Here is the input.
Amino acid sequence: MNIVVCVKQIPDPETPASQFAVDEAAKRVIPAQGIAPVVNPYDPQATEAALRLKDAAGEGKITVISLGEDSARDAIKHALAMGADEGVLLSDPEFENIDNFQTAVALSRAIEKIGDVDLVLMGRAAADWDMGVAPLGVAEQLGFPCVTIAKSMEADGDTLTVQRVLDDGFQTVEVDLPAVVSISNEFGEPRYPQLRQIMLAAKKTVQVWNADDLELEDDEAGEDNRWLALEALYIPQVESNVEIIEGDSPEEQARNLALKLREAKLI
Amino acid sequence: MPGTLIIAETADGAVAPLSFELLAAARALADQGAGDVSALVAGEESLAQSLIEHGADAVYVCSAGSLDPGSAEAGAGAALAAVEAAGADIVLMGQTSVGRDLGPLMAFRLNTAVAMECLSLAIDGGRLRAVRSCYGGNANAEVTWRGDVQIATLKPKAVDPLAPDASRSGSVTAIDAVGEQRVRVISTEAAEATGIRLEDADVVVSGGRGLGDPSAFEMMEELAGLLGGATGASRAACDLGWYPPSQQVGLTGKTVTPDLYVAVAISGASQHMAGMSGSKNIVAVNRDPDCNMVQVARFAVVEDYKKVVPALIDAIKALD
Here is the structure.
């Protein structure tokens, strides 16, 4: 089975809110000093899902793609260290600040360029913009069906049986390959790369494709061609209405809290 | 004539409450010049009455099941036909298992974008402008659409529904179109209800890395038990192996919206806030008065949890 996994590098969602800053004029997040970007938390699970299918089949090839700046190589290397076979970085100045819809178009061109892909796996959403539209977008561009928010899956020939997570339960669906599946955190722990694999991955070359390699039209990439225009980006003013519970001792503070909670009918 | 189409959902044979919130949002847009409000619902024509009472001027009814979770392709066929019939240039749906798939699918088929999980909507210069949360709630983005049709999913509880008005009237039209559905639904099961599920608990007590000690979770469990609630943990605490990953609250864990959320030694990184910021009342126990969790809390005790939580357990017991 020929599998493509799409991964993304994002600002660390564990960044303390106090260190989160926005350049409102440029409508961009200012990277927090000393906090390195990380692989989108759902993406290692997508790589894990690909590796489990490959392990079960005893054959297959996993290509990992990331669209982003040069630092996105780290996300690719992480997937390679987990066991993916090849990496492709989609990098072009025209990709800066594009939206999820443009990203989906670029990813689908890359997948077509790779050719003969049976299955595309992605995290259920990227934790920065938290849209979750790229899996469906890639599927629509490629003409594939899409199954979202998978917690487990099994392949039987050209048919995939997928358990997916709903708001209030679970669903089992079947889909014929080729298809796109987005993977949720319920899929389970991704494997941890071993030192030897990390060293092997470091030696693997990552191909770099730009907008021309993907045969993107001039109006397809570029921040000015976003489908969803970003008019403003700002840190919302959270009106802090916190009532600090005072007291002469921790015991008194605790008693006062208990009384407040009772007064508010919360306990 | 432009207008707004809402995608209604049903639960147990009736229109789901979120659909009334969508109608209220659409009516507010109509007041700003967005045109008439229509609704698409799957199932019986009798469902149309409550949609009209809650604000729809026209209701389109498509075949039962085509707007169920996992049937986005079938639903998109019906929804695109309804957009056409209503002449809508705005489409609203809920941020639900249905909307998460249907919104993007419709957007790509209409060569336009969808803004997911919007907090508020307004008409600005005749076009839709939406506010949505990003970066785990750390930032808000305001967006507009380049394409003709503007699609948005609305975060539940972002808008209050209108009171039903039995004197309202509207048209009801059947939609026969259904899209080709390539994903085959085999079965759908409700989540099992054993014990108090974190997501269903009225009270959640969570601990973070700041506890400094895995055995402190026994204290969290005791407090949660006393309040009839469930115990959660931050990702940092779960990653350290202090508490089971199934109890993780946050972006990569569970999303909870309890009446009371007690955050003990959790600073409030966006990873965690994404899973609990919808809580109705937050209590923070933290030594850092400037941390995010204290700022968003209703009540906060700025003190070492090791002193406060046992005393709180005693104080609550003493109340009864």
